[in-house]
Every structure is written in C-alpha cells, then in structure tokens.
Design a protein that fits this description.
Rossmann fold; six-stranded parallel sheet; Alpha-Beta Plaits; alpha/beta; binds L-homoserine
Length: about 400
C-alpha cells in the first residue's frame, strides 16, 4: 500500500483528493498498488469535510512519517513550497507538483536533489494543466532533437483573447469571467503580463534542451496592450492573435520569447480557443506534433498531478528522471538570432511604409488615417530601427512562422 499526502487544499488540491477517492480502483490497477491518502496539509480548518481526520497544519507530520512515500505539492507560490519540497526530497520522499513558479525558479536544484536521492520530482501539471506534454516530450519524442516549441500556455489570456475575438467582449469582463471560473492566478498580472506563460516555456525549453533555462532571461510581453482593433486587423489578415510562449534551439543556444503573435488561420494553434492550451513541438525526426487540452481548472490539473503520483508509486525503486542540468556558460541566444515578420500599425503613409520596409503585405485599414501591413522577416533590432523611421508607429506584433 502506498501512502500519500497532499499539501494545499485549494482548487487543485481538492481536485487531487476527489480523483483519489472517486477513481481509487482505476488508480490501484494502474499503480499496481493501493494509493491511500494519509494527510492533507493546509493552514485553514475544514470542520465539515467528510475526512477531517486527514487534515494537519503541521508539515512535520508528513516529513517524519516513514509510511508516506509520495507527496503532492499543490500549494502554489514559492514559500514555503520550496522549503517543504526540498526537505521531503532530502528525506527520500517523491514529490509531484503543479507549481510552475517553483519548478521554473528552483527546479534545477530540486531535480538535482531528486537525482541524488533517487526519488522522483515530477511536474506534469506545471505546464498545460491536464495536457500530457512533459512525459510525451521526454519519452515519446526522445529520439528527436527538439528544434522548436510554440505554445498557448496560459488559459486565462487565451480565454480573454477568445472572448474579444468571438464575442467582442472587453478585456475587463473577460478577465472577470476567467477569475470566476478559477483559471486566473491569485494575482492575474502573472497571467496578463505573460509571466505565467514565461515560466512554462522556461520549463519546456529546459526539458527539451536538458539545460536549465532561467525564465528571467526570456523577454516577456503580455496581452495588456492588445485592443479590439488589433484583433480585427488580424482577422482581415486571415489570422488571430494569441499569447505564445516560443523557444527555438539554434546550435547550442536557446532563443526564447513570450509575446502576443498573429497566428495564421491555417495553423492549428489558431483554433485553440477558450481556456484551452496547446503546445506545438517540432522534432527533427517527427516533424510537428501538437498537444491540446484543458490548460487550467480543478480536475484537468489534478488529473496530471495524480498521474505523477501513480508514476511515482510505480517507480519507487528506480526513479524517473524528467530532468535538466545547470550549465555554467550563457545558453541564451541573442534577441536578433531569430527573424519574425511583423504586423505594423502606423499613422504614416503607405508610401513611406514601403520606402522604409520594402516589400510589405498591406491590410485594409479599419481606422481612419492608419496604415497597417505585414513586413518581411526582420530581427528585433531591425523592426525597432525601421519603425522609428516612420512618423508615429502605433505598434508592431510578431507573426508566428
Ligand atoms: N493561471 C493559469 C492559466 C493556471 O490561466 O493558465 C494554469 O496554470
């Protein structure tokens, strides 16, 4: 019998509890062992819970209980999640988590401890909620050099952009709906400013390259400056706007960025709507594969956490190593290492736009006095310099190739 604990009884934690209870027979079959919940750690009281005897406020109850071999850390935040996780791994217990902030910030150190102690530190739920992507990328695509990853990694922003595109809703109403549905972070700035997507692409880029990618090194733009007019222009260009976490592996360097991008309607990522996430991974043997599903929410995220619990129960003797390593040299590619075409809006004339940018694809203007167009592929420095040559460039947005 495998005894497990849950740390944090919020949205995801209560989902993990629910799945362990309702799908007990299925879990037993798949883990080849009974999965029994022994503790739930939370600082709050749950006097009406049907299993209130499981609750504890004392982390040491879990840490010092030799029977507990797997712990689900679904508390969120960095502290005390980091300290708890580290102590548990050092104590020889496996930890599984949905905490992308923790994995992106302290993952390198925690994975090293897990390797040393021959226990599991698994984080399938940290990227893409319920979508299997960590395991498939690591195992099923193991024959490939991963060359590129482009993902819609944040459900809240995808939900907001979709409401703007499909229902003409304004930003605030759409964000409020996402919060009401439990998709948004406690501080939604992490969603709309792109930090959540940044942590997730850092995790995927680290896993794909096996080298620790520091999320602080990834230039990150959110969707706060995207307007209904931008969305309408994108439609005129047969595209939609999505927040994309992007990583490309160029030589031994990693080029990565998080930014809103125009996605052509022929690209399967363009059809990923609502709170759904999708990750398109390109391998040198397999070509493009896409992982799609619910990127946030109680049961989808808990589904991935429980899968890691089951896998940890099955691999208690020889741990599974979804891992990466700290590299001492700078592995990040220069901001100009990758060219994108750009969608540009300006108050300057079409004639001047052509003079500065050369060959462009012009969009029908939807705002009086504006010229809108798509450039040829340019580096970040080139588009910066060229747009300064125009009289009043309103904005430019990358186009995903
Ligand atoms: N706030 C996150 C999102 C939750 O909207 O995708 C899942 O990581």
């Amino acid at each position: 019998m495998a005894k497990v604990a849950i740390m944090g009884f919020g949205t995801v934690g209560s989902g993990v509890y629910e799945i362990i209870k309702t799908n007990a027979a299925k879990l037993q079959q798949n883990a080849d062992d009974t999965v029994e919940l022994k503790y739930i750690l939370d600082i709050r009281d749950f006097p009406d819970h049907p299993q209130k005897e499981l609750f504890t406020k004392d982390f040491n109850d879990i840490l010092n209980d030799e029977e507990v071999t797997v712990v689900a850390e679904v508390m969120g935040g960095l502290h005390p999640a980091y300290e708890f996780t580290k102590s548990l791994l050092l104590q020889g217990k496996s930890v599984v988590t949905s905490n992308k902030e923790l994995v992106a910030t302290y993952g390198t150190e925690l994975l090293e401890i897990a390797r040393e102690k021959n226990v599991n530190y698994m984080f399938e739920a940290s990227v893409g909620g319920g979508i299997p992507v960590i395991r498939p990328m690591h195992q099923c695509l193991t024959a490939n050099n991963i060359t590129k990853i482009a993902g819609i990694l944040n459900g809240t922003t995808n939900y907001i952009l979709y409401q703007m595109i499909a229902n003409g809703k304004d930003f605030e109403t759409a964000l409020k709906n996402a919060q009401d549905n439990g998709y948004a972070e406690r501080n939604p700035a992490a969603d709309i400013e792109g930090h959540d997507a940044c942590r997730k692409i850092a995790i995927l880029a680290s896993l794909a390259s096996r080298k620790a990618v520091d999320y602080n090194d990834i230039p990150t733009e959110g969707i706060v400056n995207i307007t209904l007019d931008d969305v309408k222009y994108a439609d005129k260009l047969n595209s939609v706007i999505k927040l994309i976490g992007y990583a490309e592996f160029i030589g031994d360097k990693v080029y990565s960025i998080v930014a809103p991008m125009l996605i052509k309607k022929s690209d399967p990522l363009s059809g990923v709507n609502d709170v759904f996430n999708a990750i398109k991974v390109t391998g040198d043997c397999v070509g493009d594969v896409m992982f799609y599903g619910a990127g946030a929410g109680k049961l989808p995220t808990a589904s991935a956490v429980v899968a890691d619990i089951v896998d940890s129960v099955k691999h208690k003797v020889r741990s599974k190593k979804f891992t990466w390593y700290k590299i001492d040299t700078d592995i990040m590619a220069d901001k100009d290492a990758k060219k994108f075409a750009y969608f540009v809006r300006t108050n300057d004339t079409l004639e001047n736009a052509k003079k500065v940018f050369g060959e462009i694809c012009v969009a029908d203007s939807i705002v009086d006095g504006e010229t809108a167009f798509v450039t040829q592929p340019l580096t970040a420095s080139e588009v910066e310099a060229k747009s300064k040559e125009l009289k009043n460039t309103l904005k430019y947005i990358r186009v995903l190739d």
